[in-house]
Design a protein that fits this description.
The protein contains 6 helices and 9 strands; from the N terminus they run βββαββααβααβββα. By secondary structure, the protein is of the alpha+beta class.
């Protein structure tokens, strides 16, 4: 079984192909390609067909058996990696306005994948899914009590796939060492956008990420959480 993993950015499409025989990618690369709000389906189709031919040449199979797409945002609607169906596409369309830089382009990419890889399974992995179950005290902001829950911003982490994988590895190691209790874990993603997550019982209980990339720990290209009045003071 071959798996093609796609990581769309606003101006690039990263990809990697994995075969059943190896945990390492047999093919990986990056295409300069708009995958955000300005996605062009024709360009995506051309790139995907070329990637398909490269994967077939490396693996000896006609095409990928599974296509997995990473996306930063799934909102509270998606709590795990999800198989694409008509109902899932419709749900993504309804929440597209919550992540206008990512979800509209994702929908175009899904449609292109369905044409290039017909009858193949397509799954989407959401960075936010790991953090949907954050306790209310962690994911809620101090907003007016009358603000509708459906429209109020909430805290998510932006590197849930990395934190989830890191914690799963820790749990595998502790089982190997025959330790009974589940460990309490601090998972740190360094870049891009440093983020710290606290995990207990296998589930996140705190994360430094916020409703937007501005909140959290200072990074190479982001200031992190600061007093909002600083912006006004600097402007003056």
């Amino acid at each position: 079984m071959n798996t093609l993993v796609l990581d769309p950015e606003r101006q690039t499409l990263r990809y990697a192909c994995f075969s059943q025989a190896s945990r390492r990618a047999v093919l990986e690369g990056t295409r300069d390609l708009a995958c955000g709000p300005q996605s062009d389906k024709h360009s995506l189709l051309s790139a995907l067909r070329d990637i398909q031919h490269q994967c077939a040449a490396r693996t000896g199979r006609h095409s990928a058996d599974i296509v997995a797409i990473r996306t930063p945002y799934g909102g509270s609607a998606f709590t795990r990696t999800t198989l694409i169906t008509e109902q899932v596409v419709a749900l993504l369309a309804t929440i597209a306005s919550e992540a206008p830089l990512h979800l509209p382009g994702l929908l175009v990419l899904i449609e292109a994948c369905q044409e290039v890889f017909p009858s193949r399974s397509i799954v989407v992995a959401f960075e936010t899914a790991f953090f949907v179950s954050l306790p209310a005290r962690e994911h809620l902001y101090a907003l007016d009590a009358h603000t509708p829950t459906s429209t109020a911003p909430r805290r998510y982490g932006f590197h849930g796939l990395l934190h989830e994988a890191a914690c799963a590895q820790v749990l595998r190691l502790t089982r190997t060492l025959h330790r009974g209790a589940l460990p309490r874990i601090l998972s740190l993603c360094l870049e891009p956008g440093p983020e710290l997550a606290a995990v207990a019982g296998g589930r996140p209980i705190m994360v430094t990420g916020g409703a937007t990339p501005l909140e959290g720990i200072p990074g190479q290209t982001s200031c992190g959480q600061i007093d909002p009045a600083i912006v006004t003071a600097l402007a003056q």
